[in-house]
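Researcher: Here's the sequence for the chain we discussed earlier.
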Amino acid sequence: MFHYCVEPDPTIKVECDEGYIPCVNDITNCCPDTVSHEFEWTTFRSGEVGGPNSGFNGAAIDSDGGIWVVGQVFTDSTTYELAVFDGLEWELRNVEYEFRDHVNSVELFAIAIVNDSLIWTYGSLPLLGNGIDWMAMDYRDQGLPNISVSPVKLWCEDVSSCLFVGREGRILRYDDGDFHFLDSPIGMTIRSLAVSNGNYFAAAYENSGEYIGQSAIIYSLDGENWQIHKQSQTFYPGENSTDPGIITAVISFDGTCYYTTPYGIYQFEPESGIESQFASKSESRTSALTAREMSGNSINDFMIYGGNRTVVHHDGYNWWRYQLDVLEDGFFFTSILFEGDTVLITGGSSSSGEAIVVIGRR
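Model: Thanks. This is the structure I predict for it:
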């Protein structure tokens, strides 16, 4: 360790021995670096090569470390909506449910495992099941309007409390058997959702239609009442513009929001209203890519997925950038999940037509 004879300058990071890094809350002292940056990357691919485009849209990890991914996989014989890895092998499954006297199955977009026997997912309607049997939860039976959330993200606190967000800024809440739409302050597609310490944050942007080129951060302190924190009118503003530019991804730890812009990553504390830059685009090594989504375990251990098959890992001090050589040109991205020592990146290949999940193991 390095020792000081005078009071250290609190604006200068201390130099640390191998195995230690400057502490996040006190950069003049050293803390153990227990986070490894070494990941082994593999892929699981499914779908008929050269057939209709398959794709995985969302992923979850169960309590035993099993991997669950949803989407739509076309084979030469049938169509699947779910793939499960039990630690030894992958299994493709149909997600079928009865709806108005018919058996249905549709492409699925998000998944949340709330306990060992109950799973939420979403296709054209919310579905609740155990991995084998599924039940449609039709909110229109409760008198709600006949509109679809067309969900992009799903978050569940437990089996009786979930949030579905998606197209046109729509937010659907489920509490103890009751569905209700929440008033949304935006009309853009919500593409990123994060919850911590009872604070809710979402990032939205639009590539087409009425709100083309616009993006925003919205938040709620109770999960019910949402407001805009920041809104952008253009994806890439000029050098002297005060517009923040495209806001693409959000993550939250300890009630604080972290979000991406073309200028770097910013943090926002909703109770105080204080905002500051967390890392510049050069510091975070995102200058050559557009961040698509963030996921992680803590502010000392999270990942950013960007374009060109690239991920960036932050350990609280260093930013490590990886090129995913297990992927080829033509990969389209849909989601990233980083829990514990496992990273799951879902999407598919527009060239081969396969659905793909990238698995990173630390």
